[in-house]
Specification:
The complex is a heterodimer of chains A (116) and B (114). By secondary structure, chain A is an all-beta fold. In chain A, 0% of the residues lie in helices and 52% in strands. In chain A, strands 2, 5, 6, 10, 11 and 12 form a six-stranded mixed sheet that branches. Chain A has a four-stranded antiparallel sheet with strand order 3-9-8-7, with no helix packed on it. In chain A, a hairpin with a 4-residue loop joins strand 8 and strand 9 (74-79). The chains are: A mainly beta (116), B mainly beta (114).
């Protein structure tokens, strides 16, 4: 069974600084996708960034980038130039690409607070 | 664009009562999902419907039933609510299983069982 682990329950960062959120996963599959979702205080989950396992290049979306280490099964999220609006809970998630169900397996979440 | 709409947003039940959480999406998505969110446990899949007319159990299906009423609607029913079902429930949808992997979520429904 696949598992996703986020070992940092809470983190904080000063506005404009950089922060990295950690995620590790376990799977025997070779075809899979990894995601970071953001859940602000409003509760609505929003996709931040997505990585296909077959791609060696790390995904980037503006101030958000990932460090995908396939052999180590690690998938960290780096937020550059942190903004107050980045304050949220962040979830790492895994999807088995060989399944047609679209099911996501989520980690426990990391609460990030950006301080002014 | 409404996206994924869940009702109700808040509900308080007594142990043993029943209720149905409603979910509708207007994005013509094939797949729909129900997750529950509990502190320290992330989101766990309760049931999902990969396509209209099919439903399957997820990680934590006990105590729940679902109905995929049509392509737009996917409801979650608690037949006899228990305090362990106190949680925040999220409905989500996606175009198909693995097209992009992106799930679109509703705003959540906070359920308290006394």
């Amino acid at each position: 069974a696949q598992t996703v682990t986020q070992s940092q329950p809470e983190m904080s960062v000063q506005e404009a600084e950089t922060v990295t959120l950690s995620c590790t996963y376990d799977t025997s599959e070779s075809n899979y996708y990894l995601f970071w979702y953001k859940q602000p205080p409003s509760r609505q989950m929003i996709l931040v960034i997505r990585q296909e396992a077959y791609k060696q290049q790390n995904a980037t979306e503006n101030r958000f980038s990932v460090n995908f280490q396939k052999a180590a099964k690690s998938f960290s999220l780096k937020i550059s130039d942190s903004q107050l609006g980045d304050t949220a809970m962040y979830f790492c998630a895994f999807m088995d690409g060989s399944s047609n169900t679209g099911k996501l397996i989520f980690g426990q979440g990391t609460t990030l607070q950006v301080k002014p | 664009n409404a996206g994924v709409t869940q009702t109700p947003k808040f509900q308080v039940l007594k142990t043993g009562q029943s209720m149905t959480l409603q979910c509708a999406q207007d994005m013509n998505h094939n797949s729909m999902y129900w997750y529950r969110q509990d502190p320290g446990m992330g989101l766990r899949l309760i049931y999902y419907s990969a396509s209209e007319g099919t439903t399957d159990k997820g990680e934590v299906p006990n105590g729940y039933n679902v109905s995929r009423l049509n392509k737009r609607e996917f409801s979650l029913r608690l037949e006899s609510a228990a305090p362990s079902q106190t949680s925040v429930y999220f409905c989500a949808s996606s175009f198909s299983g693995t097209s992009t992997g992106e799930l679109f979520f509703g705003e959540g429904s906070r359920l308290t069982v006394l």
